[in-house]
Amino acid sequence: MSETWYFVDSGPCTPAFNMAMDEALLNWHSQGKIPPVLRFYGWKPGGVSVGYFQKVHGKIDLEGVERHGYQLVRRQTGGRAVLHDQELTYSIIVSEEHPSMPQSVKEAYLVLSQGLLEGFKELGIEAEFAIPDGKMETTGSAVCFEEPSWYELIVAGKKAAGSAQMRKKGVILQHGSIPIELDIDTLFDLFVYPSDRVKERAKKAFKDKAIAINTLTSEPQTFDQTNAAFKTGFEKGLNIRLEPFQLNEEQFAEVQNIAETKYNQSEWNFSR
Asked: Which CATH number fits domain 3-269: 2.170.270.10, 3.40.50.1110, 3.30.930.10, 1.10.645.10?
């Protein structure tokens, strides 16, 4: 028998609100107020999220971010910078003590990412899990989609979804990016390179490392179609039933407060 989880379909929100919502859901689940949650969302305006430990200065081209109309926000999770624009973003909030959750981060990725695998199948895309051979070259790049980590989703050897995970207050938060379209020229305008030659070389190499949904499907997929496919995929992959959950006024105000006092603040976003 499948377990019931909440499904939060946020639609497009600001970068600060998106990160605040993930944090609030983690808090509420930790406090026993809500069951495990799957959340889908978009970004308006588009955002650049940097990993918790990632340096911004000297790595991210802040003028480029502003020029393209994006907003920068720091995630609670680690990893490298991600451009969130034409994509479906997901987050999963579930207790570390959940009977289906392994203790190790790597194995928990494998369990939770079954939902992604099934979502790609729903779109007729045969994805598989990345299993690094231990010889992966670490490029030192600030760009997330440069190379896959354990159990991230790849199609034809190229990374098709990027995820990050953290554990806090006894809760696992895993969130990730599923690109529907990839604008590589724009992406590389957002990072600092020692020279144009190095930037062009990195851009050329990147084309062999990442792929978006609409490069893989015969018909272009909209945000809503992608959302529907991955909702079904997560239900199948995690053996859960998703029940729509709407925030009440008090909960919404709490998310807005976290966004304003933390994720909209330079001290949080630019401190490293």
From this structure: 3.30.930.10
